[in-house]
Amino acid sequence: MAGANLENSNHHINEGLLLQSLKNEDIDVFRSEFLELHPYDQASFFKDLDEETRAKIYQYLSPEEMAALFENLEVEEENVSDVLSEMSPDYAAEMLSNMYADDAVDVLNELGKDQVASYLTIMDDEAAQEIKELLHYEEYTAGSIMTTEFIAIAENQTVRSAMYILKNEAPTAETIYYIYVIDEDKRLTGVISLRDLIVNDDDVMISEIMNDRVYAVSVAEDQEEVARKMKDYNFLALPVVDFKHHLLGIITVDDVMDVMEEEASDDYSKLAAVTDMDTIDKSPISAARKRLPWLVILLFLGMLTASLIGRFEATLDQVAILAVFIPLIAGMAGNTGTQALAVAVRGIATGDLEKESKKKLVIREAGTGLITGATCGLLVTLVVYLWKGDLFLGFLVGISILFTLIVATLAGALIPLLMHRLNIDPAVASGPFITTINDIISILIYLGMATLFMSYLTN
After folding, report:
1. Domains and CATH numbers, the chain
2. Which range scores top for mean pLDDT: 9-13, 46-50, 152-156, 351-355?
3. What pLDDT sits at residue 7?
4. Mind giving me the DSSP string for 275-315?
5. Predicted model pTM
């Protein structure tokens, strides 16, 4: 058995043979080779095919076999509406019926309301009802990612009767490692592992061996919070309940991995000031449409920076050398602000800031800004003095960097915390955004101090 598993794990996609068998319409060779592949490899092969070749696959695979493939497609990266339209409506509906309900919902969420209604009408009633129950939950909540294919047993059952239920329902359940225990009103009362069922005698009551300290999440809880809890507690699955603690579904670890990837991509998009980075745009128009809104906002913020510099035109006219150091000070402010921003956003995203006082974070970042500012300020004072031979100019640039780095570091830490407090995604305080804000702060500090001590500079 171990040898067979090893052989299967090393089975690579023989694209040449698969394509040749499709071209020759050799269904037996194609099915023999294709069905040996892992569903992920099947999906990888399928997504690169043209419409004509895909049409043959729909003829060669049953809807149930196609369902396993479709569950491994990245629906955000594929135009699932076009792919489904290549199939006959009956074939597509039957395929969706054979998918796990949560995966089918992910697919249907990419379609228009008319298409969804059409497929639900064609599906068998049981599958359609399961999917309808999940579709009405708000996106990005526990309810939107849970599955209803789980095994639940009653607390007044014996191990023998529970094993009977397990054997009958295991083929359609997403996981059998956790079996959830409910009371007469279908409220979640406990959990039992597959191991517990195997090692206990047949006549033992479930209520005697179940763990009644079961951890559950609310159906309305944010999916990112659910993912964090599953990571913290190392769960393979997590039950989802309503406000009366009725068991509604479960969230499995594979769904959580998708959530973590989705949330990480979303946060990175916002940090880069891009609307969506889930897909690589095939046209420059589409890419530009996603980037322009942020760039326009940053353009006007940049104009504010230019306007601010214009207000110090008299200062720059009298001491033109001051203009040389504007990019240096603004750049340092942007860099240190982005570093503090990354620390704060990561702390909020991972939940570390719930364990650590936010006050401690602010104090730590202020101290970091003081140390880095003092070090960089001393270095730049020395460099400017050796370069220009003007000690006061060097001191002015150095002290400006000191105050700029302290303020920029604090801004980088405080802005995400403020946004989090206002229930705004802290990743919106993106790198370009915080950099532009710190440009304004740094120029105000630098040129303000230069204007204040103008008499020393002109002498």
Report:
1. 2-136 (1.25.60.10), 152-253 (3.10.580.10), 284-458 (1.10.357.20)
2. 152-156
3. 40
4. S--SS--SSHHHHHHHHHHHHHHHHHHHHHHHHHHHHTHHH
5. 0.59
